Amino acid sequence: MAEKKVDPATGEAYTLKELMAHYKGTYKKKELEEYFDNHCKPVKVRQSKAKAKPTKDAKPEPKAKAKAKYKAKAKAKATAKAKSAPAKPKEAPKEEAEPKGLRTGKDGGASALAKLRSFSRCVLAEYVWLDADGVTRSKTMTMTARPIKVTDLKVWNYDGSSTGQADGHNSEVLLKPRAIFNDPFRGYPHVMVLADAWQAWDDQPAKNNTRASCAETMQMYKSLDPWFGIEQEYTLMKPGRVGEKAKTPLGFNKDDSEPAPQGPYYTGAGYNVAIGRPVADEHYKMCMEAGVKISGINAEVMPGQWEFQVGPCRGIEMGDHLTMARYIMLRVTEKHDCVCSFDPKPKEGDWNGAGCHTNFSVTPMRILPGGYDTIIKVCEAFGKVAKEHIAEYGEGNDKRLTGKHETCDINTFKYGVANRGASIRIPRDAEKAGRGYMEDRRPAANCDPYRVTNIIMKTTGECLNAEIVEAGSKMHTAFVFIKPHAVTDKVQTLVKDKLTEGGLTIKSEGAIKAEVIDKKKLIDVHYGAIAAKAVMKKPSELTVQEKAQAEFEKQFGVAWSKVVEDGLVFNAMDGAKKLGISPDELGKKYDALKKGETIIKFGGGFYCGKVDSIYVINGFYMNMRSKFTAPGTSIYYYEVEWPVEKMKWEDFRGKFLGPTDPAQAPAGSLRNLIYKDWSDLGLKAQPDTGDNGVHASASPFEALAERCNWLRLNLNKDPFGKALLASGLTYGMAKTWFEDPALEFEGGKKSVFDMLEDLDAGDCLKKCKAIAAANK
């Protein structure tokens, strides 16, 4: 039977399945599973007093006599237990009862608080962020509900002029919630919120908001699935004058003289050895209660010096969890009469400094065959940018990285297996297993975890992606298909022979029936931008470049802006209605238009033709769609590839395939052959601009979009697709670009497909990267 738990928000008992049904459409599955596991309380089962059934031979005792006998037995048992029991310990505190009427979910804000008679059932949220110097700051808000997800929280603000992040005359800085933790100091249901700071006046990251840049990098290289684990060393110090930096470690003698040399303190135990253990232990427990991914602690080499480890964490959460762990440490020391220092060299002399050793791996290191070789490759890449990394690894690190005390000199870079004196230590197990992780020992205790993980991921991503991009640049892969009007056995043989003779390798081929094309809307996705211009968008919504407008005026003798203003331009659907004809009839009229006279091309899949007295955008589309979806028809496709050096993409389209108008196609091109021999090939009519026999992709990028549509290709498994992601595009960005949006680039908005048309694979990838950078 499924376990039932009480939902604190409603007071009702549910199974996990019932809870999901109750909150269906409000929260995601993972959020509800976490809520059920960590916040819902087990149902208390009342034990009923079962009466023993008397046997046939048993004689029932009088009620009073049985009761007296039971009492006597219980008293004797209690007396015996009391004599043998040890001294009575202090009564354990009772677990705090679930607040009655607690709400969970989105905070109602000030308007909801104003309607409450009392705030006794409200929740406190401690917002924590980093100031201009990387020091954690915090302040508390009263909320109407306990948040389950980050979007349940409101964006708050604070005085940035007091944290070095704004000027007094324009001081408002925003706090954007990024992660939720339990509040171990105030207890359930209260929370702590990790936030980052943004300027209210322009919504740009505030000074020292290094998280924003780190999040972009982690998203860019998400497919590598980076894991981090940070070993945070810190030193407990004796408090100095208020507002001044503490100078003496907690473990030094009362007269400030130095203790015995380091040696017994590391992982030690006992009085005058493990100095500060109560602080370290309390911090450990508090982090666990908060939900911080803390994985261990140990005493360090210098007295009063300790370490806690956070991780493994994935991507951006490394910085979030370490920042919250540091904040909790500062809160813990408030009541222990000591100061926590993250200084990389808290005490001059023959003492170890304090670091933030960062353990790191990505999927090719950790899981894939050849993982150890990948680790070496990344280490070599780190060596080339050693100075750039050191600049991100904390202030005052030169006092720690001296080449002594288990460190490598700050001006030296080296890596080695099990070498704690190297810049990068590779664990012995990684060498033996042939895969694993690496440890960068250079980051200082006071480093910014977002800056550290950011540059580690950037260097690694660029190193590994360079090979992926290079591989994707060497091969061309196109999607070619015979259009429905030309699908005959003879045409299939001709196309296949032509592809093979041209040195193109056919990776796959096959037929796709009209019914499938119609049901899965393959042709609509294929001609997405064309279809949108023909059916959904109004002419006023379309972007026509200045050069195209000038050509329009030259050809038709009237300005584009004028005909739009006068209402003389229509999309295909509206144009048919205006003329009082069917879409098919409009299509026939459109096919009869002549290039350079009555029809003009504005861009890829973007045409404007003069039909009777009006101008029609993409009037060919409705007629074209019906050709692909007519019952009994189909297309026949070929997925082909060839080395880039064998044939440029421009030649593949212009010379091998031939231009859109088959009558203009060069002799020997595929479209020319079909146009010339159409009758012998079994076609019903000679090909024209619309029915030109064969389609082929206009660029490597468009080819990828077409393969993803028609063949249901996995972007992450395609060489060019992987190279595209490695160039800086996210998966979501690539999918959006497949719809051919107009994007800002080099001073104007342009069609993605147009910008990439006829480029070879390597140039296409470079331009994609540049376009992505221009549209962040």
Give average pLDDT, whole number. Answer: 89
Q: Specify the overall morphology.
A: elongated
Give the CATH superfamily of the domain at 228-354. Glutamine synthetase/guanido kinase, catalytic domain
Number of helical elements: 28
Features:
776 residues; elongated; ATP-binding; 28 helices; Creatine Kinase, Chain A, domain 2; five-stranded mixed sheet; glutamine synthetase activity; alpha+beta; 19% strand; Ubiquitin-like (UB roll); glutamine synthetase
In a nutshell, what does this entry contain?
Among the domains are: 5-42, no CATH class; 109-208, Ubiquitin-like (UB roll) (Roll); 228-354, Glutamine synthetase/guanido kinase, catalytic domain (Creatine Kinase, Chain A, domain 2); 357-447, Creatine Kinase, Chain A, domain 2 (2-Layer Sandwich); 522-626, no CATH class. The protein is 36% helix and 19% strand.
What does this structure look like?
With 776 residues, the chain is an alpha+beta fold. Among the domains are: 38 residues, no CATH class; 100 residues, Glutamine synthetase, N-terminal domain (Ubiquitin-like (UB roll)), CATH 3.10.20.70; 127 residues, Glutamine synthetase/guanido kinase, catalytic domain (Creatine Kinase, Chain A, domain 2); 91 residues, Creatine Kinase, Chain A, domain 2 (2-Layer Sandwich), CATH 3.30.590; 105 residues, no CATH class. It is 36% helix and 19% strand. The protein contains 28 helices and 26 strands. Strands 9, 10, 11, 12, 13, 14, 15 and 16 form an eight-stranded mixed β-sheet that branches. The protein has a five-stranded mixed β-sheet with strand order 5-4-8-7-6, covered by helices on one side. Strand 21 and strand 22 form a beta hairpin. Helix 9 crosses helix 12 and helix 20 crosses helix 21. The two termini are 51 Å apart.
